[in-house]
Design a protein that fits this description.
By secondary structure, this protein is mainly alpha-helical. It contains 16 helices and three strands.
């Protein structure tokens, strides 16, 4: 990179994102990965070894990069959601340029016109209560790691936490006597979530008897890995996948589904909804910034819709109009019976 692009990126990350926008460390890391991938892609397509400038980030090059991200054969095979997240990082950089470097205004405006890619949102994967219980029975409670893993699942399902919130959980978040936890989540937002007595007992037992001795840096964290460090979000995901994989061997409904850590969050949301809780309650429980994020769970349970349909019932006149009259031929009668 030239001093030109290098200085802009340093200011963008160290000043604009941190000081002016106050983004989280995870967002900083994600944006950093985006520009690392972008510059590696651009470098692979040119012969010159001259440093990059802002002008190298032309719209055509960015579009080629986005296409490369989704290419399953020679690219990274990312989904449209990841593609849009990478584009958001790039466009954030050009918003910074619009504010602080007006000389790049024309290029910045063109880049900001690049559209997000539309995609069909899939219904979130979640576990039925029976599937959840089956996953939990795969945990060996006779080992310290088993008690830790059961505590992780109890915390995940009770609070609907994200993987990063589980990994980042501190012991001081918990008010066990009053059965509540103050979770610091996405965007450094906090929410207070009540805890079942069983969750409290499970976590207290883990802390008192089974929590590994942490190293100095990991001391404040709740969940500790085998090396004495704080469990990472990747570690949490690995633990969840392990037990889902074991449960899938005896549960056909789990075999071909992509159940991940976030599926436990969806499970909590759907089960809260099934328990007839209001959307605003579920929104606050999960720490959603907008009620729009919560409304997606309204469309997840077809079984509930079928039961509602049975209670609702069609008009009698429509039913009676389908009843065959006396003297109708056999073919019509058979057709009517088939359509029942």
């Amino acid at each position: 990179m030239t001093h030109d692009l290098a200085s802009h990126l340093k200011t963008f990350f160290l000043s604009y994102l941190r000081q002016h926008r106050g983004v989280s460390p995870l967002t900083l890391k994600s944006y950093g990965n985006t520009f690392r991938l972008l510059l590696q892609f651009l470098a692979s397509r040119r012969r010159s070894r001259r440093p990059f400038t802002v002008k190298d980030l032309e719209v055509k090059h960015i579009l080629d990069f986005l296409q490369h991200l989704e290419d399953k054969h020679v690219g990274r095979g990312n989904c449209s959601i990841t593609r849009n997240q990478r584009l958001a990082a790039i466009q954030s950089f050009f918003k910074y340029l619009l504010i602080f470097e007006p000389s790049h205004e024309n290029l910045a405006k063109r880049v900001l016109e690049i559209p997000r890619k539309k995609f069909v949102k899939k219904s979130p994967e979640y576990l039925s209560r029976q599937e959840l219980e089956l996953v939990l029975t795969q945990i060996d409670r006779s080992t310290p790691d088993g008690i830790r893993d059961l505590s992780i699942f109890a915390f995940l399902y009770n609070t609907g936490s994200r993987a990063q919130e589980v990994a980042g959980a501190r012991i001081h978040w918990f008010d066990f006597p009053n059965r509540r936890v103050n979770i610091t989540g996405k965007g450094d937002k906090t929410r207070i979530t009540p805890l079942w007595p069983s969750t409290v007992i499970c976590l207290q037992r883990y802390i008192a008897h089974y929590r590994r001795s942490p190293n100095t840096q990991a001391a404040p964290f709740l969940f500790i890995n085998q090396r004495g460090g704080a469990l990472t979000r990747f570690g949490v995901r690995s633990i969840v996948k392990k037990y889902v994989r074991l449960a899938a061997k005896v549960c056909p409904s789990l075999e071909k589904r992509k159940i991940a850590t976030h599926s436990l969050r969806h499970t909590t949301a759907v089960h809260l909804l099934k328990s007839r809780n209001e959307l605003n309650v579920i929104k606050d429980w999960l720490g959603h910034a907008s009620i729009k994020s919560t409304k997606r769970y309204l469309h997840t349970d077809v079984d509930d819709k079928l039961r509602t349909l049975e209670r609702f019932g069609p008009p009698d006149y429509v039913v009676s109009s389908l009843t065959p009259n006396e003297g109708e031929d056999t073919d019509l009668l058979l057709g009517w019976l088939k359509d029942l």
